[in-house]
Design brief:
30% of the residues lie in helices and 24% in strands.
Length: 276
């Protein structure tokens, strides 16, 4: 996620991003947002990789479709879901040429941009001498805000805190009336030991604020609209909430009014009642 794919995830790797990587990360995160932002980011990443060519793919109707590239044209590049191994949240060497995307003799690497199974968004690169996949993975983990499509639909199976796709406001309000908000929160926490929460408030009167929050955190967790122009964001407890809240507030022009951790849906509701 970056903002926000593994954006603020506390990495399981032992290494850290070096000075060059930090400078590059900050430069990429400052890029103005447009349809070509991801392409620009990949071209900047090429020198750091280093890699011959890099591509971002998103899963659509059982195929991975390229939406951004660096060092090569993206054209209509695509390949079937079965070509990518199960997503473990880690990078992987690929032996397949992915329908000719990888040139003869080339070595490709797969980097997940989310933790879904199957992976919804991924980065692929064709190796060039000196590629350090762990360093690249650490950097990619900070760039989800830039690299993941903002308005992507939500294919794939449901379930788990990392389930993509926001709950529609009408559904949330209906569930609240029926006392079912706890059920929705519990579903979003399936398979998780705990949850981190952030409540954001729109202070500018933006009509699409819930949709903007949902798009920003869709690869990390779930968003629940709340009354008074506020939104609840639930993410895994291994996410750095302070950093995530800072980036969300800055990118969405919103105010962080509360951060918390909870080990159950009931605890989340208690916190919400105290807040409201």
């Amino acid at each position: 996620m970056g903002l926000l794919s593994k954006a603020a995830t506390k990495s399981s790797y032992s290494g850290t991003i070096d000075n060059m990587g930090e400078a590059l990360k900050n430069r990429i995160l400052r890029l103005p947002r447009s349809n070509s932002t991801a392409d620009t980011a990949l071209n900047l990443l090429k020198a750091y990789g280093p890699f011959q060519a890099g591509f971002c793919f998103t899963l659509s109707a059982g195929e991975y479709v390229c939406y951004a590239s660096g060092g090569a044209g993206k054209g209509k590049l695509r390949f079937p879901l079965r070509k990518i191994p199960e997503n473990t949240g880690d990078y992987r060497r690929l032996e397949d040429n992915l329908n000719g995307i990888v040139p003869a003799g080339g070595r490709a690497w797969f980097f997940p941009l989310d933790r879904k199974n199957p992976c919804q968004n991924l980065f692929l690169c064709v190796e060039e001498g000196g590629l350090n996949p762990e360093s690249l993975m650490l950097l990619l983990g900070e760039l989800g805000e830039v690299l993941i499509p903002r308005q992507k639909a939500s294919p794939g199976k449901k379930g788990g805190l990392l389930e993509r796709g926001m709950k529609k406001r009408s559904m949330i309000l209906t569930e609240e009336k029926n006392g079912g908000l706890e059920t929705l929160i519990r579903r979003s926490m399936e398979g998780e030991n705990g949850v981190g929460g952030i409540i954001l408030k729109d202070t500018k009167g933006k009509k699409n604020f819930p949709a903007a929050v949902s798009g920003a955190v869709s690869s990390l967790g779930n968003m629940f609209p709340l009354p008074d122009s506020s939104c609840l964001v639930l993410v895994p407890v291994n996410i750095d909430q302070e950093l995530l809240a800072h980036r969300l507030s800055k990118s969405l022009d919103a105010k962080t009014v509360l951060r918390f951790e909870a080990d159950s849906a009931g605890k989340v509701l208690e916190i919400l009642k105290s807040f409201g």
